Amino acid sequence: MKKLVAAVLAGTMVLSLAACSKGGDSGKASGGGDGETYTIVYLTPSTASQFWTYVGIGIENAMKDMEEEHGVKIDFSTVGPAEESQTEEYVTAFEQCIAKQPDAIVTATLAIDATVPKAQEATNAGIVLNFVNCGLGVGDDGAHEEAYNEFYYCSNDTIGEMAAEAFLDIAAEKGISTEEGVLGMNTNVENEALNHRVDSFRAYIEENAPGLEMTDTYYNGNVVETAQSNAENIISTYGDKLMGMYSGNNITGDGVCLAVQGSGIADKIVNVAVDSDDTEIAALEGGYLDAIIVQDAYAQGYKCMENAILTLINGENPESEKQVNCPPVVITKDNMNEEEMQDLLDPTRLQK
């Protein structure tokens, strides 16, 4: 099976799926599949992260739907390090996955340089390799696309720009001046892809609120306590000059929200974060987080797994493009109780 898939994937892709939306309507595959058993591994960057758990819910729901729709059986497993910062352990787990020769691997990487040769090795071995959310480039650039089958992602440039636009809109709503003041910049790690969330945010603010001073980026290694300590440092350093905080991921947002809540400055600043988890949802409800830029982690996971299975069934990738962008949305206290927003904030509601 792997040799057949590897041979056909070298040909031209001729079908196109709808871009990122919650799946289940892919239609019947043309190449059979009834009775086939496929071994597929979800190699997660973190077993402890709620975000990657949400991606996993989409992956497992797609697996169940495809088993029912196409009469196939999926031998499924999840592996990976506990924390995103354990990138060496991630690469080791990738090597172990390749050695077991599954039919497909669905994964995301926060260690691009170290992952590229492993991705090429997997693809050369005939393993269908799909990336979800974090791939071998920023998504928009098409980097290393010869080393994988498909990549479903949310543009980090779009995330940063939307976050900055929401930040300025909320500042106006709260009556907080953007003519001057300090904006605290926070994120988890330096990463070729994730840096775009910060860089695009900075670029938008510089163009649309040039009077604001943005701090250097405070990195926390994806540790909540460090993110909180960094935020407390920013708050104490800049005092009344501080007019806002930006957090590039949910773990960072958790720490910043705890610092904002503890310092009692929520009504004096704008606080915007990326990605959601229980702590951020509570912060949004409590009024010490103003907005979350939320990716559809569930849909990205669903489409990534759906594509992997259809590629195995059909012997070719059904997408016409190697990278599919799944846009984020802005969630605030005003819209967070809408059903669609609740599903984005808590994809466990969709678990089958």
Automatic annotation (TrEMBL):
Gene3D superfamilies: 3.40.50.2300
Protein location: Cell envelope
Chief location of this protein within or outside the cell: other
Pfam family, one: Peripla_BP_4
Any one GO molecular function term: carbohydrate binding
Signal peptide limits: 1-18
Lineage per the UniProt record: Bacteria, Bacillati, Bacillota, Clostridia, Lachnospirales
This protein's UniProt keywords: Signal
PANTHER family tied to this protein: ABC TRANSPORTER PERIPLASMIC-BINDING PROTEIN YPHF, D-XYLOSE-BINDING PERIPLASMIC PROTEIN
The protein's name: Substrate-binding domain-containing protein
GO CC terms: outer membrane-bounded periplasmic space
Entry keyword annotation includes Signal: yes
Entry similarity comment: Belongs to the bacterial solute-binding protein 2 family.
